[in-house]
Design brief:
By secondary structure, the chain is an alpha/beta fold. Helix content is 27%, strand content 19%. It is built from 13 helices and 21 strands. The strands form 3 sheets. A 15-stranded parallel beta sheet has the order 1-2-3-5-7-9-11-13-15-16-17-18-19-20-21, covered by helices on one side. The chain has a 3-stranded parallel beta sheet with strand order 4-6-8. A 3-stranded parallel beta sheet has the order 10-12-14.
């Protein structure tokens, strides 16, 4: 070992010694930011760390990978498994780990465990046929969290849906009329989802959970609500519900349960509902005026037809994912001037020129005319909003996500021009290009598309044709000429429509001082040519340009 290695080893040993000199509370706070499995391994470092796990105030468990065989009793998915196989009745590894972690917090004595601030469990092992044993185990976790809570600050995050996407609708562009092939496959998929819900036995939450005065944040996914006659959640500020169904079989089903829960939270400030549609029958949601919401997110609640916010004076962020809503969808009482961030994600087949759809969308986005940041996602980049009358006078950051087909070269420039003309204060523009639709057609009359990140990368193909004439107009748009400081391109593949749009923006933005471009996967030689082309379009040669 040379002198440098010796010095490095001594320095590392000294750092470890200084860290070990911290008290248990400080070390427990540090380890609380790690998954519980990783934090538990710290006990093997030395005797000093043996009982530090008990000082952690946050326990986080997440199933890394789904089991290859679901042959155990709680998840009898493999009907061909040997009934005599001991693995069939062995508790799932993650379930055993949660139980061991909770018990392990008390190794140092009855008063050694720190008060619990948060318990987070996300896994897919509850089972298609989870019975009383499975439910009692999860009930025990929640009871433990309530018993060892930290004063009036407790967070419970229980996700038993396996991390499935909340919506499987793919972004797609409508085909011209006459090529529609019918919706038989979609009907069959709906039938199968209904059969799956009848087979799958969901976890029913205990009534005691909704009488915990210390509960400040609650997130449930893939669960059924069984609410008590009186809900007492005076401290709850954050509520996140995903795929919630009715667990009590009362009149009104899950819709009544979700509405009752929302109405019973007087301090509710952050509300998120995801895929609370078919299983909960949620069609109308009313947020009482006593709840001063600061953030509201509605994602893929496709049966939800009307939302009434009793007091929107404190609302600062709004997120929506779903189809184009009707004008009566959202009603906000009070001033909504504090809303600074808005996300609209049209996950169905967005406006393809239908006047009614575009009119409905424009009515919806006008509700957020005073925002400073907007993120708009749709099948087609810009989703046709440039054709209507709207204005965002305070908008500073705009992100557009969508496809840009080859035949949209001039149309995309026209649409972006109209958008920029209505955003006089815009300083940052980001364009995220989704992959072009495949040339094949499915039976629903849409181009086949992909929507996961890996497929997006794989579907891109870099291209470059130096013989194509890229003629773009010179325009005088105030925000582009005087205020635009940053332009970003994500998943740029060099298609003609993308190149024309990029050239149009860069050639008309003389004050831009930062350009960032992420290329699609492809040969380095093509990336180099596209990079040189973009550099030539930037008027401000001292601008900071980054490529990856």
């Amino acid at each position: 070992m040379d002198a440098d290695d010796s010095n490095n080893a001594a320095h590392a040993a000294g750092s470890d010694a200084r860290l070990s000199r911290l008290d248990d509370a400080a070390l427990g706070h540090i380890l609380s930011f790690l998954p519980a499995v990783e934090a538990a391994r710290a006990a093997t470092l030395s005797r000093r760390w043996r009982h530090v796990f008990a000082a952690m105030h946050t326990l986080s468990f997440r199933e890394s990978d789904r089991p290859f065989s679901m042959g155990y009793r709680w998840f009898e998915l493999c009907s061909y498994c040997d009934p005599g196989d001991p693995d069939r009745v062995r508790p799932p590894r993650l379930v055993s780990g949660v139980g061991a972690a909770l018990l392990g917090r008390h190794r140092g004595g009855p008063h050694a465990a720190a008060a619990l601030r948060a318990l987070r469990v996300a896994f897919d092992e509850y089972g298609f046929k989870g019975g009383d044993e499975a439910r009692n185990t999860v009930d025990g976790w929640l009871s433990y969290a309530a018993a060892y809570r930290a004063g009036g600050n407790l967070e419970i995050d229980l996700r038993l849906d396996g991390g499935e996407p909340i919506c499987k609708r793919a972004y797609s562009l409508l085909l011209p009329p006459g090529l529609d092939g019918g919706g038989e496959q979609e009907q069959e998929r709906c039938r199968r989802r209904g059969l799956h819900r009848r087979i799958y036995r969901i976890y029913i939450t205990p009534k005691s959970l909704f009488s915990c005065a210390a509960l400040r944040s609650l997130r449930l996914a893939g669960c059924g609500l069984d609410l008590p006659s009186t809900i007492a959640l005076p401290s709850l500020e954050t509520l996140h519900l995903t795929r919630i169904t009715d667990g009590s079989r009362t009149t009104g089903g899950g819709a009544a349960a979700v509405q009752r829960l929302v109405s019973a939270c007087p301090r509710l400030a952050d509300l998120t509902l995801e895929a609370c549609g078919g299983g909960s029958n949620l069609t109308v949601l009313s947020v009482p005026g006593t709840a001063r919401l600061r953030r509201l997110a509605l994602r893929c609640c496709h049966d939800l037809a009307a939302v009434n916010v009793g007091d929107s004076s404190e609302l600062r962020a709004f997120e929506y994912r779903g189809g184009v809503p009707k004008p009566t969808f959202l009603t906000m009482h009070g001033s909504a001037r504090k809303i600074s961030f808005c996300t609209i994600d049209l996950c169905d087949q967005g406006p393809a020129g239908t006047p009614e759809l575009i009119s409905n969308l424009l009515h919806f986005i006008r509700l957020f005319a005073g925002v400073e940041r907007v993120h708009l996602t749709s099948a087609r980049l810009g989703c046709g909003i440039g054709r209507g009358a709207f204005s965002f006078p305070a908008l500073r950051k705009l992100e557009l996500t969508g496809m840009l087909p080859e035949d949209d070269d001039t149309a995309s420039i026209t649409a972006v021009t109209r958008i920029l003309e209505r955003t006089p204060s815009l300083e940052t523009l980001s364009l995220f290009f989704l992959p072009d639709p495949y040339p094949m057609v499915d039976t629903t009359g849409s181009y086949m598309t992909v929507d996961d990140e890996e497929a997006i990368h794989a579907a891109h193909e870099l291209r470059y044709d130096r013989h194509v004439a890229l003629t773009v107009p010179d325009v005088d748009i105030p925000c582009l000429r005087e205020r635009m400081r940053e332009i970003n391109f994500v998943h740029y593949q060099g298609a003609m429509a993308q190149r024309m749009l990029a050239k149009f923006l860069l050639r008309n933005a003389p004050v831009v001082d930062e350009v960032w471009c992420e290329f699609a996967r492809g040969p380095l030689s093509i990336q180099t040519k596209l990079m040189g082309e973009i550099k030539g379009w930037v008027l401000n040669k001292s601008a900071k340009m980054m490529f990856c």
